Amino acid sequence: MRRLLLALPFALLPLAMAHAADAHDHDHEHGSLPPHEHGVGSLNVALDGQTLELDLDGPSMNLVGFEHVATTDADKAKVASARQQLENPLVLFSIPKAAGCTADAQELKSPLFEPAPEEGAVKGEHHHSDIEAHYAFTCSQPDALKTLDLAQFFKTFPGTHTIKVQLIGSTGQQSVEATPKAPTLKF
Fold this sequence. Notes:
Blueprint (H helix, E strand, L loop, with lengths): L1 H29 L9 E9 L2 E9 H5 L8 H14 L2 H4 L8 E9 L9 H4 L7 E10 L7 E3 L1 H6 L5 E8 L2 E7 L5 E3 L1
Parallel strand pairs: 1-6
Antiparallel strand pairs: 1-2, 2-4, 3-4, 5-8, 6-7
């Protein structure tokens, strides 16, 4: 077991180096922080036995259309709507009903979901903000999970143009990019 844990960083090194090169190029194009690219999110999917886990991370710009603290009623409504959509992952990720998946755990994190700070602390500040979501499911029929369809996610959050997916399932590990034109992931 210890050898596996020690080998893992070396196995992931080529992926990390490729990501760093992409981020470096992106920094020069837009002057933003490396892991934060508007229109692009990441999704880690792991299916192990009857357990399905999803970890989503993306700029709040993709999901609500802005990154600032919501102070207007319209912005607050957008944040509330996005949160409500994210709280329904079986629909959002089109998890097949035949798989019999039930949500065991769900966690949503974002500075936008926190109470607004004092007004003086907001003026003149601009921060990149992400929205992170973690979901854990138990699936009574995991063999029915042949695909995961992100079409509904792209329809719900049209500011997301690409989702970089790392998927681990019974057939191994794969890395794919899902887009509105190619939204289906195969286990």
